[in-house]
Amino acid sequence: MMGVDPSMIPRTPKKKKLELDARTCLFCALESDDIQVCKEFFLNYHKHIGNEDVILTPISSLTEMMSSIDDLQKFVDLECINMLLMFLKSPVRYIPFYTSRMIDLLTRDRCGLILMKLKETEEEQQKIGSENLVSVKMLIENLTQLIHEMTCVEKREALLSISNICKFIVQEDTLDEDLYVENVYQVAQRAKNLLLEAKFFKSLVHCLKVLNISQLKGEANIAEPALKKVPKTLYAKYNDDCLDPLKFGRGVHQEKVLSRGAYNVFGDETYLRYAMTDFQRSLAKAIYRFSLVKFDKEKAVNAFKPFVKDFVEYLTKLLTQTKDYPTMCYLMGALESFNEKGYLQSGPVDDIKNSLPYLLFENLKKQSTNILNVEAMKKMDTTYGWAYSYPMLPERGWNPNSLWIKEKGTLEKEYHETHLRLETVSTAVRAMLLKSGISEESLNELEKSAQSQSTQTICAVCKKAASKKCANCKAVYYCSADCQKKHWSVHKKLCKPTK
């Protein structure tokens, strides 16, 4: 055998070890107790990561830290928002959730300061000719993209983050002679314009369409066979749900984020229903806060116009199907606010058929609902209200190793608009419809139709009127044998014979 020149044998280059110091290690930077060192770390950390998987432990620890303390000012001062923006679109599983979660926390408690810090950092980077400018624009654009590109749990955090920004805009929408207040005002105006530029209204419509149980099941890879066969096209239909099948299988991490294995504890679909109730409530809050922002009317009308019909259709669907009191308050409050501002026109203003009241009424006629029955809504205020126990994801105390979902919890009132009442918003929406020319008789007829349908049994699959019931448990109804077959993979786990 001929000898081989060792120098000719290709060698695998040795991986350069990552030196852990205050430039490359989160814990080292924080322990240095040096503000400037920490600022440099958070601005440049993304440049030192060769293997992005090494960021999971420090980022999850930072998320837990922020979720458990009352005063987040330290993290504002250390400018960790710079790092979060760079990792927001990371391909590493969990990282987009962790970073969007922290942005939600920071913008919730210190929104104005966060936006001002981003503005200052952008100006400093411009002076030195930096290529990757962290900015208010990057924040809003990345959050909006996250809503379209990521799974349900990340959508929740992005929606809440932007709802926090909307709240800040509303609070700071008055100019003052004080220089600092004027700077804050200018940042608020900038954020307002960026929401239009980033087409956040379109993102809300997207969420109204796809934030549902079927989508969450598909993403978490626990879907029934029929759901897995849905065409891989955006907004594919499955029973009564609209889906984004391109995300199916990409959200298996959600079960661990939400319940840490409690899927097997809660039973089939239960934890999904709890989570989706919270997700849809978060969406409704974002819609409500967005509706309060005072945009330039002409710009808003033009920006929203292509999406108005879908917005009203899917908002009405959620409003009439949800049993969650806060979600109903937010959505009806948003309808009132949008109508007052005149932003929602699907076409020429002189055609009543393009108006919000007309579109709403036409969609209400397709649903069974008593939301225009003021007395019924008043009763819900008394029976439920904001102090009632609801399925929820608590805003405080999250950690990566414990159960996040609560079957029954009291909503943290400091994070919600608890002044909203269904009696008040129902009265306002009813008045809105009457003022637009819809008759009292038509509204009363709508209520009568809802009352008659409420006595009918509904198919567990397609929600149509049903007369056939499961022969075993006699508790679930179907409109056809086809629907019963579709539902059996789910129902068989819960079906018990009647005694």
UniProtKB/TrEMBL annotation:
GO MF terms, alphabetically ordered: zinc ion binding
Presence of the UniProt keyword Endoplasmic reticulum in the record: no
Gene3D superfamilies reported for this sequence: 6.10.140.2220
SUPFAM superfamilies, sorted: ARM repeat, HIT/MYND zinc finger-like
Keywords: Metal-binding, Zinc, Zinc-finger
UniProt GO BP: inner dynein arm assembly; motile cilium assembly; outer dynein arm assembly
GO cellular component term of the entry, any: cytoplasm
Domain MYND-type: 459-495
The protein's name in its UniProt record: MYND-type domain-containing protein
Native source species: Naegleria gruberi
